[in-house]
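Contributing new records

If you add data, match the layout below exactly. Sequence lines come first and carry their own label; structure lines follow with theirs. Keep one chain per record. Anything else will be rejected by the validation script.
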Amino acid sequence: MTTSITPLARLQAIMTQLRDPEHGCPWDLAQDFASIVPHTIEETYEVADAIASGDRAAIRDELGDLLFQVVFYAQLGKEEGAFDLDAIATAISDKLVRRHPHVFGELDESDPALLNANWEQIKAQERAGRQADTSVLADVPLALPALSRSVKLQKRAARVGFDWQELAPVFDKIAEEIDEVKAELPGADPARLQDEVGDLLFAVSNLARHLQVDPEAALRGTNAKFERRFRAIEQRVQQRGETMATQGLEKLEAHWQAVKENE
């Protein structure tokens, strides 16, 4: 009699075999929690790229790669006797139920603003119960992309009133930071210039937050647009039997405008 095995159980069994001390894979055996982190971050971005492409098969495959990362961490935790995949699933299930009292509890509320305030209050209580750092800015992950982390820091500060309520001072702040970058030129000290440019980027991310625009998504979109247009310029130049290096900025700008008009 053949016993069926679920796809997730099969994946766990494969992971266990990969980490088998005698017959496992040398690469997988050499990994630890810290060494896997860069791969997890990379897989997360690949999921985002697949979603942006709209290719459902690619999304499935990339989500599989990301799921494998979770299974890998679960295996490491199991080997240490710290946790396993069931413990991870239980913890997230408990958290979701706890953070949605309007769905699983007795809270009768439908106002999005009040629900969000309640969500943040529950998260704050959770943080207070597990760490000594009671700052409003506690546990904003350092590994987040810098633009995303700046928005999270700003949102946290806004909870206690450290935020502009109108757009005008947000724009004024950007103009101020641009002037401060200009003031460092020419012959700027690299460290000072980096600091001022960082201030400018922080101010721009603050504008994005006020406009309810995800700066990471916005910049990804602009990167994709730039790449698409630049590749189109390359094709135009190649079709003419010419090279990019001999065009000069004026001709390249003319190509750029032509590509924009044809989009």
